[in-house]
Amino acid sequence: MLLYDIARWKVSKANAKKHLEMIRRVIEWEKQNRRLLYFTRATYFLLKTEDLSVETWMNIDEYEDQESFDKFWKTFKKSNPEYAGGFELKDKWVSLFVPNSLTHEVFIEKPELRIA
Predict the structure, then answer these.
(1) What's the confidence (pLDDT) of residue 1?
(2) What is the pTM of this model?
(3) Who has the most CB within 10 Å: 34, 48, 66, 79?
(4) Which pLDDT does position 116 carry in this prediction?
């Protein structure tokens, strides 16, 4: 059973370049600290739109099961010194988001309904 942690947010076009650079920095930190992360895969998406004022982004972290998801969220705390660098980047990154645009949901895959 796969579990998907999905976040969506908006960024003003004025912050688009800074935002993309921050995503790159976050991904680099995640690659360097892979042992601290429990997802099996992480992917970022940019919504294709004609809106000239904002970009809409989505991130999907895929977890093997509920146990790995729970284990990550129990350790991913600002009080945990191993994650200090990640939280420093995350705080700078989130500051670029359009206020109140961040949404977060968790979906559980139904393997018996998978096609292919």
Answers:
(1) 85
(2) 0.90
(3) 66
(4) 85
Q: Which fold has domain 3-61+79-111?
A: Alpha-Beta Plaits (3.30.70)
Question: Average pLDDT for residues 37-63, to the nearest whole number?
Answer: 96
Q: In what order do the strands lie in the sheet with 54-63?
A: 41-46, 54-63, 3-12, 103-108
Mean pLDDT score, 67-81: 95
Would you list the domain boundaries of the chain? 3-61+79-111
- 18-53 in b/e burial notation, b at 16+ Cβ within 10 A? ebbebbeebeebbeeeeeebbbeeeeeeeeeeeeee
Identify the residue whose tokens are 């004022």.
53
Counting beta carbons within 10 angstroms of the beta carbon of residue 116, is it exposed (0 to 12), middle (13 to 18) or buried (19 or more)?
A: exposed
